[in-house]
Amino acid sequence: MLYTVALVMVILWLLGLVTSYTMGGLIHILLVIAIISILLRLIQG
User: Fold this and answer.
1) For residue 8, what are the domain limits?
2) What is the pTM of this model?
3) What 8-state DSSP symbol labels residue 27?
4) How many Cβ atoms are within 10 Å of 15's Cβ, its own excluded?
5) Residue 25 has what pLDDT?
6) Mean pLDDT per 10-residue interval, the chain, length 45 residues
7) Is 38 exposed, middle or buried, given 0-12, 13-18 or 19+ CB atoms closer than 10 A?
8) Based on the structure, what is the number of domains in the chain?
9) Which residues contact 16 (CB under 8 A, 6 or more apart)?
10) What does the alpha-carbon distance between residue 31 and residue 9 come to, in Å, rounded to a whole number?
11) How many CA atoms lie within 13 A of 25 on its CB side?
12) In sequence order, what are the residues at sequence separation of 6 or more whose Cβ sits closer than 8 angstroms to the Cβ of residue 22?
């Protein structure tokens, strides 16, 4: 479940970069949260 949420956040971030539509710092905060959750998931197995 957490991995799915992280993946969706990364996809939305990439979509924001491609379309040049950003919501300020919020989208980058979501990206950081997504990367951290993916790393935690990989470390925990």
Assistant:
1) 2-44
2) 0.49
3) H
4) 11
5) 66
6) 79 72 66 82 85
7) middle
8) 1
9) 22, 23, 27
10) 6
11) 0
12) 16
